[in-house]
Design a protein that fits this description.
The chain has eight helices and five strands. By secondary structure, it is α/β, with parallel strands linked by helices. The strands form two sheets. It has a three-stranded parallel sheet. Strands 1-2 form a two-stranded antiparallel sheet. Strand 4, helix 6 and strand 5 form a beta-alpha-beta unit. The longest helix is centred in the N-terminal third of the chain and has 19 residues.
Length: about 210
């Protein structure tokens, strides 16, 4: 099954946090217009950012994300909904430490993890302390600038604090959030290990 999310508040991309908050508040009137007459509760145009982010927490996860317009595409929705209703599930999202902070676009992903947790599941945030050391030319005209290990480690330490404000790391063991850094396992893989255990699955012609 595949589930991908869309960044519904597209006008927020690249905007400072304060400006993004005002855009979200302005969009509350659009929510009211969209759902009025359909038996749905409506949002007051003067709601706070926190209230808007947490609105309709009573809905199951997929219904909540669908209501927010944040599901881009999904396969087997009925089966996935039944799977999520059958117990505690896990979901992870990765975050790239190329800077000492995250963007408003990352907020969409973090809030998806937060809502996943509030629906009774376990979110895992993966910080790319290992993959962040590697260049990434895909879809770009030039390779990503390589940062030093010290720079990436400092970026990781800086952005870790962001997750504490949005995810619950102190709840029940089965649902409390986890924050992991992929350098913890990637740094232990030697060149020969990679060739022997991973490289054997690929041909040089691929």
């Amino acid at each position: 099954m595949i589930l991908t999310f869309t960044c519904w508040p597209a006008p927020l991309m690249g905007r400072p946090a304060a400006r993004a908050a005002s855009v979200i508040r302005a969009r509350s009137s659009a929510f009211r217009a969209s759902f009025a007459g359909n038996g749905e509760s409506v949002i007051n145009a003067d709601v706070s950012l926190d209230e808007l982010l947490n609105y309709r927490r009573d809905l199951p996860f997929l219904a909540d994300m669908r209501w927010r317009g944040q599901i881009h595409q999904i396969t087997h929705p009925a089966e996935l909904d039944a799977h999520l209703s059958g117990g505690v599930r896990r979901a992870y999202a990765g975050f790239d430490p190329t800077a000492d902070s995250l963007t408003i676009g990352n907020l969409v992903t973090i809030m998806a993890l937060a809502r996943f947790q509030r629906a009774g599941h376990k979110p895992i945030a993966v910080i790319g302390g290992g993959t962040g050391l590697i260049g990434d030319p895909s879809g770009k005209s030039a390779e990503r600038q390589l940062n030093t290990r010290d720079t990436v480690a400092a970026n990781v330490k800086s952005i870790e604090k962001i997750f504490d404000r949005l995810l619950d790391f102190s709840g029940k063991p089965e649902t409390k959030a986890e924050l992991v850094n992929n350098i913890d396992w990637l740094d232990k893989i030697s060149y020969l290990d990679a060739l022997r255990d991973i490289g054997k699955h690929f041909s040089v012609n691929m």
